[in-house]
From TrEMBL, chain A:
It holds the Pfam family ABC_tran. Residues 256-267 have a biased composition (Basic and acidic residues). SMART domains: AAA (SM00382). InterPro entries: AAA+_ATPase (IPR003593), ABC_carbohydrate_import_ATPase (IPR050107), ABC_transporter-like_ATP-bd (IPR003439), P-loop_NTPase (IPR027417). This is ATP-binding cassette domain-containing protein. Residues 256-308 are annotated as: Disordered. CDD domains: ABC_Carb_Monos_I.
UniProtKB/TrEMBL annotation, chain B:
Part of the binding-protein-dependent transport system for D-xylose. Probably responsible for the translocation of the substrate across the membrane. It holds the Pfam family BPD_transp_2. This is Xylose transport system permease protein XylH. The keyword Cell inner membrane applies. It is a multi-pass membrane protein. Keywords: Cell inner membrane, Cell membrane, Membrane, Sugar transport, Transmembrane, Transmembrane helix, Transport. It is found in: Cell membrane. The chain crosses the membrane at residues 25-45, 103-126, 174-196, 236-258, 270-296, 316-335.
């Protein structure tokens, strides 16, 4: 069998006295989606920064096509076909779609090395259409696109520029259900085009339908890498948060929880219907009830203390 | 805009939106209004001689405003640009008069110095990650002190003069500070330099890779870096471009007046920024236009001379300046919201 496109063996990373990542292994094959799951602070960001060349690992091995490498930076990763699409800094809102699409790799023409605008617009439009992305006008600023459309344009861009491995940093986390579905569809499409995809998420419901392999991280260590055949969605969910913690949470959120400790003007059992459950039910004695939206529960995921 | 078939949903509203989000729109409307106003006050103002007259202050301001606009689109400020026009002029005149240099060689020395100062500004900003507002405020004050201190030490006065007697003066003056007669009207040659600078800057912004990078580092530096844009190099180059523009303007002024005051150029830095903002540059970077900045400079040229044509007290100029700035910034904010609004 051909070696995997990308493989990490027991990689670790230390920042000062903080062990951000320890002995994590994962692999990515062509035409497959490897999902990296974990709650906030689990080490997902550190792992993708190593994979995308932003950080070098402090221990362990990083292999591309079976050969150990040490990347000098994001540019080298890009040159080796590893493209990373970050959640919040994927696009520049005030620039048009076509300018964003070719940013950093602009096509030039003529002796003056003129930016080939006509070609850039044409290719951007064609590539987006090939990915099934329906953009009204490539001249419009990216800021006018929805969050899902922006992620999709970034994915199309990576595919066009010859990425072999596509690393997606929480592409669905800020999106509504419908938009997230759109992005998942493009992930599948990139996979069908032969790319190896690393899909980072804290949402097992997004990961499970599209993933072929699941790496679960918790507090900087790996809880294991599982093939889809070996794990169910519920096992994945429960593994991600630690089953015991979920049970505890379910108990605390129940109606027979310690609500009598909460001083409140209105009905004690009132739960705001326009926001997440305040404070996950962990309300200290004498504290007022936090405002709705004060503590956010990750979409479909469990609550855990100690974020990043 | 593009010859390719647009999406059917882009009819009508799209065209209006596209016009509205042109960065130059505000300045064009403003320029038409100011022109109409002063034309109604004075018959000379719209005549060819009048136009040549108010294009003159617009030209030197415009060269600087265009360079500052590029820098602001790249997300940075340069407060030292005004005083640098004085510094380069002082260096040129001092070398040519006190040390007997040829004017061309003295100009070249001014250029080298300007490039070094621009490089230092840029390097300090990208290395320290301090706001360029602070870094260049520091350079501004230092240059201001140097201009005065060195001039006083060398001449005992606060100006250097006598450039006319220096070797090579006539040629340099014809190139940078002469006049060209078009249709019986004398136009300062600086006006053509300004048009050239505007055209070049527009080409770079809209039709070169560097232009794409300038918009990107000003719009979101981290995102630009992540896709391989050389952000530090782009910013340093922008500071150096501004410094070269300051050198060009400083040389034009020195050759025109044959002497330079030690406090020359101080206070101009804000006028450059105001012209760029009126021309549609966002203070936060990532958006703007070189043509807009030029039109902003034209508005100033018209107001500067128009007030004189209309026979008013020139003190009103500052009031006008403040009013234009407020209006322009308000208009820009509306535009930015419109361009950035997200449909989820």
């Amino acid at each position: 069998m051909t070696p995997p496109l990308l493989e990490a063996r027991q990689v670790g990373k230390v920042f000062g006295s903080v062990i951000a990542l320890k002995d994590v292994s994962m692999l990515v094959r062509a035409s497959e989606v490897t999902c990296v799951l974990g709650d906030n602070g689990a080490g997902k960001s550190t792992l993708i920064k190593i994979l995308s060349g932003v950080h070098g690992q402090d221990s362990g091995e990083y292999l591309l096509d079976g050969v150990p490498v040490r990347l000098s930076g994001p540019r080298e990763a890009l040159d080796r076909g590893i493209a990373t699409v970050y959640q919040d800094l994927a696009m520049i809102p005030l620039m048009s779609v076509w300018r964003n699409f070719f940013l950093g790799s602009e096509p030039v023409t003529g002796p003056l090395r003129r930016f080939d605008v006509a070609r850039a617009k044409r290719v951007a439009r064609e590539e987006l259409r090939n990915m099934g992305i329906d953009i009204r006008d490539v001249d419009q600023p990216v800021g006018t696109l929805s969050g899902g459309e922006r992620q999709s344009v970034a994915i199309a861009r990576a595919v066009y520029f010859g990425a072999r491995v596509l690393i997606l940093d929480e592409p669905t986390s800020a999106l509504g259900v419908k938009q997230a579905g759109v992005v998942l569809r493009y992930i599948a499409r990139a996979r069908d085009r032969g790319l190896g995809v690393v899909f980072i998420t804290h949402n097992p419901h997004h990961a499970f339908p599209v993933g072929d392999r699941f790496l679960v991280l918790n507090r900087g260590t790996s809880l294991g890498q599982f093939d889809k055949a070996d794990i169910t969605r519920d096992e994945l969910t429960s593994l991600m948060a630690g089953g015991a913690e979920l049970d505890q949470l379910a108990h605390e959120l129940g109606r027979d929880g310690p609500v009598e400790a909460v001083p409140h003007d209105g009905p004690a059992e009132a739960v705001p219907d326009d926001g997440p459950v305040p404070g996950g039910g962990r309300v200290a004695e004498g504290d007022p009830v936090p405002d709705a939206g004060g503590g956010s529960v990750p979409e479909g995921g469990p609550v855990r203390e100690g974020g990043r | 805009m593009s010859s390719l078939a647009a999406d059917e949903r882009m009819a009508g509203a799209g065209l209006i939106r596209r016009l509205l989000i042109r960065p130059e729109l505000g300045s064009v409307v403003g320029a038409i209004a100011v022109f109409a106003f002063f034309s109604s006050q004075s018959a000379v103002f719209p005549s060819a001689n009048g136009v040549a007259n108010w294009l003159d202050p617009a030209s030197t301001l415009g060269i600087m405003a265009v360079a500052i606009a590029l820098l602001m689109i790249g997300g940075e400020f340069d407060l030292s640009a005004g005083v640098l026009t004085g510094t380069t002029g002082l260096v040129m005149v001092t070398l040519a008069t006190k040390y007997g240099w040829n004017v061309w060689a003295a100009m070249l020395a001014g250029l080298v110095l300007a490039l070094l100062i621009g490089f230092a500004n840029g390097l300090l900003v990208v290395r320290t990650k301090l706001p360029s507002f602070i870094v260049t405020l520091g350079t501004f004050l230092m240059l201001q002190g140097l201009n005065l201190g060195v001039t006083k030490a060398l001449t005992g006065t606060v100006q250097v003069s006598g450039l006319r007697r220096a070797e090579g003066f006539e040629g340099a003056r014809a190139l940078l500070a002469g006049s060209i007669t078009v249709g019986g009207v004398d136009f300062r040659v600086a006006i053509f330099w300004w048009l050239g600078v505007t055209a070049l800057a527009t080409w770079v912004l809209m039709r070169s890779r560097a232009g794409n990078w300038i918009f990107a580092v000003g719009g979101n530096e981290q995102a630009a870096r992540a896709v391989g844009v050389p952000a530090a190099r782009t910013k340093i180059a922008l500071f150096m471009t501004t410094a070269v523009a300051a050198w060009l303007v400083g040389s034009i002024m020195a050759l025109r007046f044959t002497s330079v005051q030690a406090n020359s150029g101080i206070g101009q830095e804000f006028i450059y920024i105001i012209a760029a903002v009126i021309g549609g540059c966002l203070l936060t970077g990532g958006y703007g236009s070189a043509i807009g900045a030029s039109i902003g400079a034209v508005i100033f040229g018209m107001a500067d001379k128009g007030i004189v044509f209309a026979g008013w007290d020139a003190d009103w100029f500052k009031f006008f300046l403040g009013g234009m700035l407020l209006l322009a910034t308000l208009a820009n904010r509306v535009v930015r919201r419109y361009a950035e609004e997200v449909r989820r």
